[in-house]
Specification:
single chain; about 70 residues; mainly alpha; 3 helices; elongated
Length: about 70
């Protein structure tokens, strides 16, 4: 498993389009994980938390970039 700082570093160097596509993929994965949890078929419960936090990190980066661009 990669460290949080390494994941954040990878996100910081990604372009806006890459971040958007990764966000869409993670939201799709989060949707599937919710269904797996509801039907008790979830293999890695920790993945739910990882996905949720990565989504938050991407949204935070996008907001910061948008604020920097508007200045």
């Amino acid at each position: 498993m990669a460290k949080a700082s390494q994941i954040l570093g990878d996100l910081k160097v990604a372009t806006d389009d890459q971040l958007s596509s990764q966000l869409n993929e993670l939201k799709r994965e989060q949707f599937n994980l919710r269904f797996q949890a509801a039907t008790n078929q979830l293999e890695k419960p920790s993945r739910v938390r990882q996905v949720r936090r990565t989504i938050a990190q991407i949204k935070t980066l996008q907001t910061a970039r948008a604020a920097a661009a508007s200045k």
